[in-house]
Amino acid sequence: MVVATKGGLRLEGDCLVRDAGRRLLCEGVEYSLHALGTDYIDLYQVHWPDPHTPPEETAGALAEMVTEGRILHVGVSNYDVPQMRELG
């Protein structure tokens, strides 16, 4: 079994907003760990590119959580190739 989940969206009023900032990603992982009853997530994906957060911030937060062992692998969905390259 592989535990996979996505993050990077937050509710603002009645709208979903793309937010791949460090704070929201870290909070999302902590929430998922608790909700799933596990110590780590096999695959954590950023759901959508966030035009308001620098890719370096997103990539840095994900790398930090991998180093800490909270997530094992990172991925993205709805990113095109240039956006994936920006994440490094």
From TrEMBL:
The keyword Iron does not apply. Pfam families: Aldo_ket_red. The keyword Oxidoreductase applies. It comes from the Bacteria. Keywords: Oxidoreductase. Residues 21-87 form the NADP-dependent oxidoreductase domain. Signal peptide: none annotated. Coiled coil: none annotated. PANTHER family: NAD(P)-LINKED OXIDOREDUCTASE SUPERFAMILY PROTEIN (PTHR43364:SF4), NADH-SPECIFIC METHYLGLYOXAL REDUCTASE-RELATED (PTHR43364). This is Aryl-alcohol dehydrogenase-like predicted oxidoreductase.
